[in-house]
Design goal:
homotrimer, alpha/beta
């Protein structure tokens, strides 16, 4: 649905430099935009591309506007403004309310008439599905699941007993919420399964990426608060709580009973030990091991970047020989008369 | 199904301090238990909560019993005893034996009449399904799959040709057992697929977490022995063998042809190289890279815990400058007359 | 389908030492082969097994041929030759062309009559499925998906809108191609979803392992070029490009907008930062963090191998005390009169 630049400027509070009657049909990258396309610049890394773009207009900040030869929509937050415009230029398909005839539906389930259920879904006893919810093909909703209005299960989502999903949340294909947590009691050299009796509560406006798993609590619920965004292939253990508006990148694992605060930013492939507490507003860089609680906001890291392999092997060899460095330092300090009793305890 | 404390004490060999007629209806955490609830204390970290709990009774060890003001069930292994009691207070739904009419069933499959098959499962040729097995919705069982009695496929489990699952094993949603192993022969700058002809044998009493994958062997079978517990999002490569009663936490990957011993405890996000051998009774802490075989029981680690980012950057910078440390040490040793020919070889 | 050694020698250009009329029925490992089996030796680690094998014949290189007492098929590339022979001895089941009656099929989809669609698949509008393609049970093909000839979706594969899969590519169970990329714009302490409008193009002869996820591009397409082999549980972010004939082992994650070159070999559990560029012919060892672009071919590593835990704890303690090493070195250098102004800047 094409929109004029003037309309976009008014609707999103942008300053327009250019012809308000130009009609925009789609979004595009700076490099590949044409005269019907809107592009945006949010990442300064791509600023040089402003010079050559053929876009009808570009959404950008005041600072970058001078460098652009095309029409521009100037705003405070170009990425957010772009996101809003892209959503109206490229809307999701409208819902086709109703339940596909292949659905296996418990008699006690309550489905809002404005919801859409696609083929091959199974809906257990006492499930409730809110207004305008979309349940894509091959979803499994066990007994007692509750979907708030406007939830979107893209396809092949599995929700265990009693799982609650807040309004407008989006779950990508392959997501499993509410599988049993990993609880086993050691007994005589074997492991006895501990029944996992809690469930999972997901707040509003949460996004969960493809093939991510969130386990049900052992006794009480695992909780993901509103506005959390989880990427693909993430593991959230039982009894975890993730604070509102925290984002976690792909392949990260959070062990059981750990609490992550609000507005955290967690990189990809981060591992969290169990039973720890991460404060609000913590940033953790990708590929870090978080073994201990973090009590205050800030940036934390455990990332050791790869090197050319020969260099790396020498670094590792030296690292593993650090005892000899310590011993040699002590010998030198002794020889130089610099050593104190305290230093002798060091290693 | 409520049970009296007296009955629980007799049944599980506990010493009861309190009224044997008190009836228990459910389990709860120490913090949230009420007068109908049973709580437990296994992790000493939560011992202070004993003071305030309103539980009807608490399952705990002799050492902790004095600190608790409520009725107590004293036993050797409170976590295991709790697990048993929780299982009878909160039993799984009884099976509804029979095959859902939507099932696509090969004529040659043999399904025990006491088994339950839910909606939208596909059952290939020569599949056998044992007594009281549960096949949840959306499972795919390829030709020749064999489920022993009391197996439980929670939902959306995919089993490749010839996969065998031992008695009482539980597979959570999204598990894939028996996909092709990662075998490709290099040839002229391309990769030629090597047919994966083995299958996977899973022993009795195994648990496999959500979205975990276990590949079929290249020629012979990948093997997971009895009592193994695998968490979510784990990758087990082709030709791997995992010894009995080993537990592996989430996001760990085991490369092809590696053997892990019995009764090992493997943390989350551990990576195992291929073609190595890990002894029995090995513990590996989370986020470790295991590049070489481990010949004897013990605890192994490669976890480098994250730090405040500024501190970390300095640590990494020093690590990468370790050649200069070595050179400076040598210069000092030379100046001090401490150096030997041997040391000169060090770096 | 049994084949004679003579026939195999002619067909695959091997030198045969042994009776050309011996008939081979199957492949087997050196250790378990019998008189109807063909074995192979590609990994020198298993060379000693040549002595005892009872195989009818072994495929191996000229160098190893002398050590084998059975008939041998001598060739340049024993692993590739073995792969070809295994494929004819153990062929895939022939396709049963046609569409299973349970399929939910959009009227505008075009299915080649030689293709096979198994039970419980959903095929969206304008999907095209090429000759001899196999769509296993429980696959979801959203609108506009295009499968080239001879594609094989083993089971439970989910393809988002517009995804293209090249000829002969194989997707294992649980794969998700074309879920939304992880794009959110920060705005007032919340995250606003950025519509993900691109799709994914997968080239010919690609293999994608179980439960691997490949996200759709934000505006343009995520691209996996021909001949790429991806193992299980891999995450490929939006706008990534993976060059032809690159192989990636399990549990690796590639963040958004990163480009990996052609013919790279990436180990398991490697993490790539976003917006970086990896050259052609790069090898990266398993469990490495790749934070920066790599401009030239070669081997790169960031793997820190695990140790016995007590040793490891001391190594980590020393690593974290490296500031004190630096200070002590400086003190020694000062005492020895070796220090220069430059060195003082080091830490």
């Amino acid at each position: 649905m094409p929109v004029s630049l003037g309309e976009l400027a008014v609707r999103y509070g942008c300053e327009l430099r250019g012809d308000p009657d130009t009609r925009i049909e789609r979004v595009a990258t700076l490099a590949n935009a044409d005269g019907r396309s809107l592009a945006f610049l949010a990442n300064p890394r791509y600023r040089s591309r402003l010079q050559d773009t053929r876009a009808a207009a570009v959404v950008l900040s005041r600072a970058a506007a001078e460098e652009c030869r095309t029409a521009v929509l100037v705003c405070e937050n170009p990425y957010a403004t772009y996101a809003r415009i892209a959503a109206i230029l490229h809307p999701l398909a409208a819902l086709a309310a109703g339940v596909h005839p292949s659905t296996v539906l418990a008699a006690s389930a309550r489905i809002d008439p404005s919801a859409q259920l696609e083929a091959f879904t199974t809906i257990g006893a006492d499930v409730t599905i809110g207004a305008r919810a979309y349940v894509g093909p091959h979803c499994v909703l066990a007994e007692g699941v509750a979907l708030a209005p406007d939830v979107r299960l893209v396809a092949r989502v599995t929700l265990g007993p009693g799982v609650e999903i807040g309004a407008r949340s989006v779950l990508q294909p392959g997501v499993v919420v509410g599988a049993d947590g990993f609880g086993f009691a050691p007994e005589g050299g074997r492991w006895l399964k501990v029944p996992q009796l809690g469930s999972v509560r997901i707040g509003a406006d949460v996004e969960i990426g493809a093939n991510t798993t969130i386990d049900r609590g052992a006794i009480e619920d695992t909780v993901v608060e509103e506005g959390v965004k989880l990427d693909n292939l993430i593991q959230i253990g039982h009894n975890v709580r993730i604070g509102a508006h925290t984002v976690i990148a792909a392949c990260t694992g959070v062990s059981g009973s750990t609490t992550i605060g609000k507005r955290c930013m967690i990189g990809g492939m981060v591992g969290f030990a169990g039973h720890i507490r991460i404060a609000d507003d913590v940033t953790i860089t990708g590929f870090s091991a978080v073994s201990h609680s973090i009590a205050s906001a800030g940036v934390y890291s455990g990332t050791l970047p790869a090197e050319e392999a020969r260099t790396w092997r020498r670094l590792v060899a030296r690292f593993k020989r650090s005892a000899s460095v310590a011993a040699r330092l002590r010998a030198l300090e002794r020889a130089a008369g610099l050593i104190s009793a305290q230093d002798e305890d060091h290693d």
